[in-house]
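Holo prediction — LQZAQKY5.
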Amino acid sequence: MKAIQAFENGRCGCETSNGASPLISMDEALRRLGEHARPITGTETEALSLATGRVLADPVLAATMTPPFDSSAMDGYALDSAALWGEGPWRLPVTQRIPAGAESTGRVAGGTAAQIFTGAPVPLGADAVVPQEHVARDGNLVILDRRPQPGLNIRRAGGDMRPGQTVLGAGSRLGPREIAACAAAGAARVHLIRPVRVALLVTGNEVRPAGADRGAAEIWDINSPMLSSELSRPDIHLIDVIQGADDRTHLRRALADMAKAADLIVTTGGISVGEEDHVKPVLGELEATVHFSGVAIKPGKPVSFGQIGTASWLGLPGNPLSALVIWHIFGLPLLDILSGRQIAEQRRRHVVAGKPVFRKPGRCEVRPARLMGFDSEGREIVDFGNTVNSAHVADLPGTDGLIFIPAETDRLPEGALLEFQPFNRA
Ligand SMILES: Nc1nc2c(c(=O)[nH]1)N[C@H]1C(S)=C(S)[C@@H](COP(=O)(O)OP(=O)(O)OC[C@H]3O[C@@H](n4cnc5c(N)ncnc54)[C@H](O)[C@@H]3O)O[C@H]1N2
Ligand code: MOO
């Protein structure tokens, strides 16, 4: 079976158990995310220049026709092609000069021409613009020997947008292309979903800020800077980043406070099965709802999702690579839902394996991968490690995204189709 078929069937075949709680499949986990997460309410109006990365609350409609008038697509001469009698060459007096931004001073009467520049309004009476390279100029006369087609080099009013036309739908995320369409539509200010308020809680007694002095059994904090970077987006307001000790009182207070202010609480670590994993017991004390805890995925098996008060909670594993992988698989779609974003395109696409895969089946395996170019059929090739170490991040900077190996797959030949999710599509 090809790797993609397992995903198309909607199953990873990984309803296995870790002994403590049953693991659900990645697809089922994503389904529950979609079932329980709710878009935030609250909107605000913002200048278009400050709206990059934000999500539209209302559609943007074109205010007027775009372009607003018939305009020239070339520097040249505007004339009435029907007034060119008989055979050329024709010698036409130039009666006006129209640069961009200037209004025409009058009609182009039959047998005359207006010198015109790219972007200038085509004068009444003219139905074609002949580029200046295709004519000769003799004093005040322009000489042409070929009859232009009516409409030549004229950009028609409303050719791009009609008044009232929906240019962008509610839920669109504004990048440079969307901003261009809004500007053309005359939308100086846009009505936006307010940013999603996110609080980040990184657990672990052993964790010290990156570069700080540390004891023999302590490590530097990778998750806070990594996830703060993931959360540095215009559609997110990162309201709090706390490095919390593995202590229930401390965690309970921090989570309760976060739940009052945040739309989404992201935690890392402390969600596995050990006595030192305090997040889930504390959630019990806070009477949180857990929609799933444990997914048949490698890395990131302990990933959990629920609700603390009105805030959504996404529990990422402590291992940094696991946290990153799980953020991309579950965190990004969760943010899409919370921010009311409409997704027009799939995040994943198909690529071919640049080398064979041999592995122990059981959990859907997700590996960071690097795009290597194209095969003879034009398909993208990926390279990836033979194993995943969920604590290692040194190889991450050279990778472009994640590949997905279905749970039941123990081997794949070089050239097998795999699903690939790029890192750079937020
Ligand atoms: N008996 C079992 N033990 C474990 C299981 C299991 O099923 N049974 N699952 C393992 C798997 S898989 C994972 S993943 C981890 C996840 O555990 P937690 O999410 O509770 O995370 P922690 O135990 O707190 O930390 C795991 C690991 O990551 C390091 N870490 C934590 N935070 C940071 C940080 N901010 N920066 C860098 N590194 C961090 C931490 O020191 C641990 O080494 O559980 C397994 N155990
Ligand atoms: O599920 Mo864990 O993230 O493999 O180390």
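READOUT: The domain at 71-155 is CATH 2.170.190.11 (Molybdopterin biosynthesis moeA protein; domain 3).
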